[in-house]
Amino acid sequence: MADIVILTGAGISAESGLGTFRDKDGLWTRFDLSKVATPEGFIENPALVHEFYNARRANAQESSPNAAHFALAEFEKRKSGDVLIVTQNVDDLHERAGSRNVLHMHGQLSQALCAACRATWTAPLVMTPEDRCPDCDAPSTRPDIVWFGEIPYHMEKIEDALSDCRLFAAIGTSGQVWPAAGFVEAARMVGAHCVELNLERSDVSDRFDEVRLGRATDIVPSWISGLV
Ligand code: OAD
Predict the structure, then answer these.
(1) Hey, how many other C-beta atoms are within 10 angstroms of the C-beta on 101?
(2) Which atom of ligand 1 is nearest to the CA of 26?
(3) How would you label 137-151 residue by residue, b for 16+ Cβ within 10 Å and e otherwise?
(4) DSSP one-letter string for 59-93
(5) Most buried among 110, 157, 173, 223, by the most CB within 10 A?
């Protein structure tokens, strides 16, 4: 349980040099998501999918957390145990900034998954279709990423936390992908104060009590400093 639930999306990592999905030049304007982010795409062309995530893994490893990630980590420390970060991001910048209470609902680039036995392990920097599962030896390894059409991770814990929170914030997310886009509604239903922090208004801005617009590295530290 956590009093404060913070949902983050690609916008919080944008100023660390990681691309967003739907902005101008975003990943989904350059890549066909049905080919690289669906189970069907992986069956059709695993090498292409590995190439896509290998590049993103390398990019994430070269990047560093920014002032928004650090502000959230500091907030968690001050509020000991009261802050849960639910991230749609597959990078590890929250953890590298010092956050400990983080749920990756869309998986993590740093993990590999066996499609045959569901074992998970630390992903090598470069994954290939020839890799074998260290547990069952099947040549069925894939990035541990939740693709379109798959069920996000940790939903029970997230729903529990939302059902009991008093503050909900969404940072750097366009509100176009469900179920995350619906979290604000769940938080509103229990009377939580809902704040959106984003570069521009999202698809679900009108569901929030407060909308703060600007770059994450500016608006997140200033919002946090007003709270503590
Ligand atoms: P999007 O690319 O859809 O949205 C990013 C949001 O961040 C947009 O609303 C931008 O305006 C905002 N933004 C950009 N730069 C920013 C900055 N410097 N400071 C603050 N905000 C900024 O990314 P997500 O909402 O995270 O899923 O996308 C959700 C999911 O869709 C992803 O997890 C991914 C994607 O398809 C999967 O791959 C399964």
Answers:
(1) 17
(2) 2
(3) eeebbbbbbbbeeee
(4) HHHH----HHHHHHHHHHHHTTT-EEEEE---S-H
(5) 173
* Direct distance between the N- and C-terminal alpha carbons of the chain, in angstroms, rounded to an integer: 20
Find tokens 């599962």 and name the residue.
Answer: 133
What's residue 160's pLDDT? 97
The pLDDT of residue 1 is above 70: no
Rounded Cα gap, residues 108 and 128, in angstroms: 17
- Taking phi first (over 0 means left), then psi (-120 to 50 degrees means alpha), and beta for anything else, what does residue 198 get? beta
Beta bridge partners of 121: 112
User: What distance in angstroms lies between residue 172's CA and the mean position of ligand 1's atoms?
Assistant: 6
Categorize the per-residue pLDDT at 179 as very low, low, confident or very high, splitting at 50, 70 and 90: very high
> Which residue shows structure tokens 């890549």?
31
Residue 105 beta carbon below 6 angstroms from any ligand 1 atom: no
Residue 2 has pLDDT above 80, yes or no: no
Strands (E), the chain: 4-8, 83-87, 102-104, 107-114, 120-122, 141-145, 167-171, 193-198, 210-213
pLDDT tens for 112-139 read 999 999 999 999 999 999 999 999 999 9
- Alpha carbon nearest to ligand 1 atom 18, residue: 215
| Residue 113 phi, psi dihedral angles, 5° rounding | -135, 140
Q: How far is the CA of 30 from the centre of ligand 1 (A)?
A: 15
Asked if residues 187 and 204 have their Cβ atoms less than 8 Å apart, the reply is: no
Which own/partner pairs from 184-188 qualify as long-range (CB within 8 Å, at least 24 positions apart)?
Answer: 184/208, 186/159, 186/162, 187/5, 187/162
